Amino acid sequence: MLLRKKISNCNRWTISTTIAVLFLLELCIMCCWLLQLSTEHVQTIEDQGRIRNVSLKDVMPKRIHQIWTTTNNQAIPARWDASRKSWEIKNGNYVFTLWTDSMLNEFFAKEYHWFLGTYKSYYYDVQRADAARLFLLYHFGGVYSDMDIVCRRPIDELLAEVKPGKTIIIPATKPFGLATDVILVIKRHPFLWSAILSLKSTNRWYGIPYLTEMLSTGPLFLTEHYRQYSGKESVFILPEQLYTRTYFGHVRGESWHQWDGRLIWWLWTRSWKQWAIGAMIFFASLALFCVFLMLMTKCFIRYKNSKVCHTALLLAEKCRIRRVRTSKTHEY
């Protein structure tokens, strides 16, 4: 009996010690992670202050990043071959990197393991691509481009037109806000870091796929973050005309759009005449539907009334027959 008590006490002590060690280990990991975040954030501020008055073309790394993420091993569409090659042709002095799923998983596991769980939890491939471009540009700097973006002029020509102090270039897009198709930035820019820190809080479902993609990691997410960002003086917003007509072009892409995204984009690209005709057809159809509904309601009410009357007549006839039978019974 005494031996059993000793063994029981020993097991309890072992379990308690194990729990305490695991708790301390988790606490140490959390402290190291927070220290890493704070250190990197301070470093971005120091870097930004050090290059505040220098030209972007002198400090931006000469690297071009593109991403191809897919869960079904789909090959890159052939229609994007020309747009991809245009970056290499126009920018021969840049290092070109095409990031795949395996490369990105290895990158996050090695450099930003604290975000790997969130990265894998996204609903759609485009969300992972949107988040990955922020991390890659923050970590390496340089240029990011989507597969369906054509480079029409060398990047160095665009950088030469940017005033000193502007350390990140983000294009404006229609109907409003910022695009994430092309981003040019220095290494460890604080705007990207603050956006990265917001990714976990926006990782949720927003009702439909299009809004989920746009608000959690896409252009609307970046636009809202820019609206709240205090260091706007370091951000150069590339006008939409220069973005789509002078320096870059856009071939048919939108491979991530589902039914809702295609519907929203189709509605947005209609002219005012098409909207007017559509509105007339809609209200005319609505009026016809209301008339049809009123007629059906009247018919239904008449039918119900006739059925009630018929039922009442049957009951009255039954009562009459019952009275006749009762009177005959009394006579006999």
Specify the biggest β-sheet. Answer: 6 strands, mixed
SSE-based structural type: alpha/beta
- Cα distance, first to last residue? 101 Å
Number of helices: 13
Query: How many beta strands in the DSSP annotation?
Result: 8
Helix/strand order: HHEHEHHHEEHEEHHHEHEHH
In spatial order, strands of the major sheet run 2-1-3-6-5-7
The backbone outline, from C-alpha atoms, is elongated
- Give the DSSP E fraction (strand runs of 2 or more residues): 5-15%
**Radius of gyration (Å):** 34 Å
How much helix, percentage-wise, in residues? 55-70%
Show unreliable segments: 1-7, 29-48
How confident overall, as mean pLDDT? Answer: 79
Task: Note the main attributes of this structure.
332 residues, alpha/beta, six-stranded mixed sheet, 13 helices
Structural account:
- With 332 residues, the protein is of the alpha/beta class.
- It is built from 13 helices and eight strands.
- The strands form two sheets. It has a six-stranded mixed β-sheet with strand order 2-1-3-6-5-7.
- Helix 3 links the parallel strand 1 and strand 2 (95-99).
What's this, in brief?
With 332 residues, this protein is an alpha/beta fold. 62% of the residues lie in helices and 10% in strands. It is built from 13 helices and 8 strands.
